[in-house]
Amino acid sequence: MRDNNFLGERREGRGESVASWHDSKSSHDWSGSSKNLFEILLPRQSVNCPPSEGVPFRVGEEKCGLSDNSSPDLTATPSKGGQSLLQAFCVCLLSLFFTSLSAQTELSVTPAYNNLDWTTFVEKCETELLVRFFFVEKEIPSEVKILVKEEATLLQVLNDNLNKKGVFASEDGKGNIFIQSGKSVTTSLPENYFKSKKDKSKSSEASGNDNRFLKTKKDYVGTTQVVGTQQKGLRERKSTVNGSVKDNQDGTSIIGATIYIEETGEGTASDENGFYSLILPKGKYTLTVQNLNHETIKFTLQVLSSGTLDLVMESQQFTLEGVVVTSEKNDVVRGSQMGFEKLSTKAIKEIPTVLGERDILKVALLLPGVQSVGEGSAGFNVRGSPADQNIFYIDNIPLYNTSHLLGFFSTFNSDGTQDFSIYKSNLPINFGGRLSSVFDITAKQGNKNEFSMRGGISPITGKLLVEGPIAKGKSSYMVSARSTYSDWMLRLVNDQDVKNSSAQFGDGMAKLNFDLGNNSQFRVFGYYSFDDLNFANKNRFAYQNIGISAGYRKVIKKKNTLDLDVVYYDYISRVEDNELEVAAFSQDNEVIHQEVKANYTIRPNNNHTIKVGANSVLYDLNRGDLAPLHSESFFTPQVLGRERGLESGVYIGDEWDVNPHLLVNGGLRYNIFNVLGGDEVFAYEEGVPRTQFSVIDTFSFNNYQVAKTYSGLDFRAAAKYQFDDRKSIKASFNRTHQYMFLLSNTISLSPTDKWKLIDSNIEPMRGDQLSAGYYTKLASKRYEASIEGYFKQVKNLVEYRDGADLIVAGVPEWEVLQGDLNAFGIETMLKKSSGKLSGWINYTFSQTRVHVDNENPEQRINFGNPYPSNYDKPHSVNVVATYSFTRRFSLSLNTVYATGRPITYPAGAYFQGDNRIVHYSERNEFRIPDYFRMDISAKLEGNLAKNKRIHGTWIFSIYNAIGRKNAYSVYFVSEPNRIQGYKLSVFGAPIISATYNFKLGHYE
Amino acid sequence: MNSDNNLRKSGKEQNWCNSKSSQYLGAKLWMAFGFLLMCYSSCIEPFEAEIDQYEDLLVVDGRISTAPGPYEVRLSKASSIRKTEFLALRDATIEIVDDQGNSEVLKEVEDGVYQTDPNGIQGTVGNTYQLKISTGSANYKSAPEKLIAPLPIKKVYQEVSSQFSTEDPELAGFQFYVDSDMTGTDTDYFLWDLETTYKYNVDFEIPFVYSGAIVPFSRPDSFFTCWKTEPIKDIYTFDISNLSQPVLERLPLNFVGVDTRQLSIRYSLFVKQYSVSKEAFDFWSALQDQNDNQGSLYSSLPYQIRGNITNTSNADEPVLGYFMAAGVSDKRIYVDPFPGSFSYGICQHADPAAAQWDIRGLRWSRRSSWPIFLAQSPNGVLEVPLDECVDCRSVGGTIFKPSWWVE
Questions:
Q1: Phi, psi (5° rounding) for residue A581?
Q2: If both were cysteines, with which of A335, B288, B345, B350 could B355 make a disulfide (CB 3.0 to 4.6 Å apart)?
Q3: How many cross-chain Cβ pairs, A to B, lie less than 8 Å apart?
Q4: B244 closest CB neighbour out of A407, A581, A634
Q5: What total of structural domains would you count in chain B?
Q6: Element (DSSP H or E) covering residue B11
Q7: Is the bond preceding A906 in cis, omega lying within 30 degrees of 0?
């Protein structure tokens, strides 16, 4: 067998955990040779984790005495049948989870263990002492009773009781107890052991009984894994193989891992619970399992009958080949979703950012189809949609403001986030309420097994994260916090106003996970962020995001999943204006989002994944309380009132594998939006602009009384046709509705923008998107290439009357105009995710046009002609490249090019009195100069020693390395003797920064 | 020194600092952080846009007020942005009519400038005024506007202040404010027009002149002291509808920095306060906003600001400008020299050798440039100075003291 490679790897001190679970047959096979126990003697580092690397899966049917909670995830339930089956065979490797703690302390047994029969004793030890027994059943005399007269070490007790029967016990210091007749087991291996066993291994593979994996330098080459029994298989024509995919480190379910069968060209991906299911004729197959940031595993699967096969994937450690930078679900060809990007926090470590603040959302801007108005501005424009058509969820909590410091940074502390997904088209049916995209961010789940801490320091922030078990192996916590101390920079500026200013921001999150047993899980997540920006005590802007979500998940029959979630979210913002004392005022706004949702995912068979569910959101908005700021102000208090709405949806969707090549996905979602009372509603004369003069009637509604109801049917339809494992085409068409928007007529999102629900006078927006793409892998699958095109149309887009003042807008419908948005684009992407050089290049061609026309000239924008949106950038190229020189040192480079955004240029000048007035005409007719930027960063990892206390990483970065003064905007000012154009650049020089991050424990 | 240039600078700085909309908050904070990010002086730089096209639109600019006539209406065409000029529209017929049956046809006194007779129509509180224009090819009219009673200005005053600017991080100077009591007002909307006059000296007297030969100048201080009057080319507006008491305090007006000679001897600010209609306010505050608010991250898109003039037969034709009827009151204040140091440029005496060369060169000067003023350094060396060092008129002032000037 090829184990010498395997061993060689391990001996390099990689510290990987290596252990093996044996199916009954193989156990039987080598039970005769006691030395074969070597398999389980290999040291483990992360002792509490399911076996990894060596054996990335377990065969459920054959699992020996694995208790339910042997895995941190609730999915690993061995069947009763499996247990009885194992009794029939003579070798049983009873086991239980043990921890590093138990491995380090002296194991002792008390007289409470006295006079138990062998099986009971073993069970009791395994449960209470968290050790694992390995023995051959027939070698243990059946009549043996274990006597424990006084407290003694476990080994002592065992040897006292068993030695006289010719059976010996030994222990490896990690909680593994080996019982063997004849002599005690050596817990280390002869040097040349594997070599000598090579031939034998081959023969066992041929017989389909070997379940070990080998790792070669390039890839894992698995041996054969058997599922089911021949006897059971006699009754089946096709067999179902299902199971879970988990991470070896923390046992979390891996979502979206692709499992590909080479022989049939068929594949599947693990769902949001980490489950997969395959239906196959009996036979032998070659399977490849891949996922972002995990080592790819490859093995032969022999299907004898239906059965369970749990897969464990090893977290990608410091691979020799280089750093993985990947932007998509790891398999663009086989994955069913399109317009989808997934990034993990780990994968963005190297990418240079402003002031070294690692920011998951800013990296999103390097992906195709995601734009912003300009650097340093808040808001994302995905495929031509305005920024308010995106929603950001972090563990089900929607965040209505994701920017710190006016948009320079995002409110997501990258340490506390696991990964995030962006859906740019065909949003999953369980998401509703936004037209453009869903940014779904997963907060990091605490480590269930051991305490860990990490943190970092950058020029403007400090951050810390702690995590660890509450009850070992069952529940965990994660708490992270970040805060700024950037005011020192303000003090450096030689200006009194700036010196008197301050900018505070921070954020924190906490997550608790509980394994309730019985295949159910409970999770509570809390999020808080704040910004408090004060300019020279004249203006102040402060806001907070406060959210809590709780989720219950139960897995039914190992394949269906029930999710129940409740969310409470509160966005509070405050503006203070003290420019003019007599008119100084403050304005408070609030958005409360309360949501309940239920989702049931059913997998009736291998070919269908059906989602049914419902959700309901109660919105409660304070549109603004304006009050005098202090006693010197004569400002009249104004209460703009509260606004309420109830958005509810029911949905059903199905993903259907029609055949190995064709997959279709469809869904329907019925939305109802109730405009709820509490405010006065005006009725207007038809056909004239809505102003105070066209009000013909006023209605008032009681609190929560339904004032108006809108309903809409969303649908999703998508299909994928896969030619082979290298090529596929996909297409989708979907419709969504949106019931709230941001009152914003500034060029980019402003901190003073307020959310607004649709109401009796403003209709819901509706969006349709058609997209199609071709996906392929090139050059031995080292490169992924894709081209995707889309058409998008939005009806009832909310725009604003020229010169609308929305800051104190008492009656928004007087300012709002509704029109159409049309966008199309082609996104191309070439990506390389492995090797010393990794990264991506993408090019996007896109166009966005807004059209607001009406019979009334006052209700037109741009004279009723279509105009480009503020963020319309037809050509956009992003290059992200990382080169890893060694494991410890890598260099990264970003290059960004985009057409300058549209701008309205003067169409002439005129005089009023002595003032020169600039006259503007066609909206967004011209463009500012093109944008080009290069960033460089270098990452230096601390040493890679395995057993150290702290691992540190330095990141040095230069943002805008060439110092180009990219225009943020071009504008014209009337000066006493002329009209002067100016160009504003946000970053006019290279920005150099150093960041230090640390983590307790070794490198990861 | 070039006072025009200095004025322009301070005019621009106005944009960052005198604001009342909370939109500015973001802009300023954002700017502050922009500065931090190492582009302290280069965040904003002049930009030449290649715009030559312009729309050939009618522009109307006129007002009638409670101040005694004559009243002026100016008709022109919009010009190119690169070369803003008054493209007069001549030979139009312009008539002001009120709702009491009074009317007067204006007389074209200059190209594109039309005036009422000093003894003709007078703005009367409560009357509604309208402008009618016939250009020969089309007819235009303004929306009727009611003339609102003026209110007295309570106080105009200044405070020592400093300004946030891209050129000089802390430019000291006077910030002017206005207070008004609007009790009993008929309108919530006000705007202010400012005119400044200041007295200033140049650096050198003129002991000699050259007119073919160097001769002593009879009155060396002839062009030493001037007064300069100029309008502040900015618009100030305020809306009191959000105030519980119609009392306006500390509305910031202009800022005058120590980088010019304006505050060096005596400075006078003349403030005119107009009580205007909501429509006039909307027009002027939109212009103000659009001019001051561009270029920040949080500015709104600029757009075509329409006034109150329409083509009687084609309502879609864009016509620029406004004809306003307003009650007006005024107040003048004087300010003594700024109690601090100045940073304006001062003329230096030339190097004696260079001065000698210049004096010798006078013989080749053209006759048309005579007389040439000469200065003399303290040690008696004659020199040919720049005009703005010896002739206060060269920077736009007059040596005649305005009749109303109070020392």
A1: -55, -45
A2: B350
A3: 305
A4: A634
A5: 1
A6: helix B3-17
A7: no
Q: Closest to B36 (Cβ–Cβ): which among A493, A628, A635?
A: A493
Lowest average pLDDT, out of A765-774, B50-59, B203-212, goes to B50-59
**Interchain pair A911, B74: CB under 8 A:** yes
How many residues are there in chain B? 407
Angle formed at CA B253 by CA B247 and CA B258, multiple of 5 degrees: 140
Give the pair of three-digit tokens for residue A298: 């490859």
Do the chains contact at B322 and A917, CB–CB below 8 Å? no
Burial of A926 (0-12, 13-18, 19+ CB in 10 A): middle
pTM: 0.73
Using a CB-CB cut-off of 8 Å, the residues of chain B touching A966 are none
User: Which structural domain, as residue segments, surrounds residue B364?
Assistant: 352-385
Q: Is B374 inside any structural domain?
A: yes
User: Nearest CA to CA, how far is A861 from chain B (Å)?
Assistant: 9
Cα separation, A373 vs A379, whole angstroms? 8
In a domain, B363, yes or no: yes
- Domain boundaries defined on chain A: 3-313, 340-1000
ipTM: 0.85
- In angstroms and rounded to an integer, the radius of gyration of the C-alpha atoms of chain A is 31
Task: Please give the Cα distance from A418 to A702 (Å, whole number).
Answer: 44
**B11 phi, psi to nearest 5 deg:** -60, -40
Residue of B6, B22, B324 to mutate for A, most A C-beta atoms under 10 A: B22
Identity (one letter) of the amino acid at A947?
N
Checking if the pLDDT of A271 tops 90, the result is: no
Instruction: Find the distance separating the first CA and the last CA of chain A, reported in whole Å.
Output: 30
Which residues, including other chains, have CB under 8 Å from residue B351's CB and lie 6 or more apart? none
Compute CA distances A609 → A147, A355, A559, A600, A655, whole Å: 54, 44, 10, 10, 5
> Which of A237-241, A466-470, A586-590 has the lowest average pLDDT?
A237-241
Chain mean position to CA B177: 17
Nearest-CA residue of chain A relative to B193?
A: A913
Amino acid at position B87, single letter: L
Q: Residue A779 burial (CB < 10 Å; 0-12/13-18/19+)?
A: exposed
Residue type, A915: N
Q: Which residues of A235-259 are buried (b: 16+ CB within 10 A; e: fewer)?
A: eeeebbbbbbbbbbbbbbbbbbbbb
**Mean pLDDT in residue range A585-602:** 94
Backbone φ and ψ for A427, nearest 5 degrees, come out as -55, 140
- All residues of chain B having their beta carbon less than 8 Å from the beta carbon of residue A807 are 21-23
As a whole number, the mean pLDDT across chain A is 78
Rounded Cα distance, B280 and A234, in Å: 91
Top-confidence residue, A106 or A729: A729
The C-alpha R_g of chain B, in whole angstroms, comes to: 25
Is there a contact between A72 and A251 (Cβ–Cβ < 8 Å)? yes
Minimum-distance CB partner of A982 among B19, B37, B46: B46
**A201 neighbors A269 (Cβ within 8 angstroms):** no
Residue A783 near residue A832, CB atoms below 8 Å: yes
Whether B301 and A924 lie within 8 Å, measured CB to CB: yes
pLDDT of residue A493: 65
Q: How confident is the model at residue A787 (pLDDT cuts 50, 70, 90)?
A: very high
On whether residue B365 sits in a domain, the answer given is yes
Which of the listed CATH numbers 2.40.170.20, 3.40.980.10, 1.20.81.30, 3.30.750.24 matches domain A340-1000?
A: 2.40.170.20
Give the tokens for residue A524: 């509570």
Q: What are phi and psi of B179, to 5 degrees?
A: -115, 140
- Two tokens at A337? 């979703």
Q: Please report where in the chains the tokens 């604001």 appear, as a residue.
A: B19
Determine phi and psi for A155, rounding to 5 degrees.
-65, -40
Minimal-distance CA residue of chain B relative to A912: B61
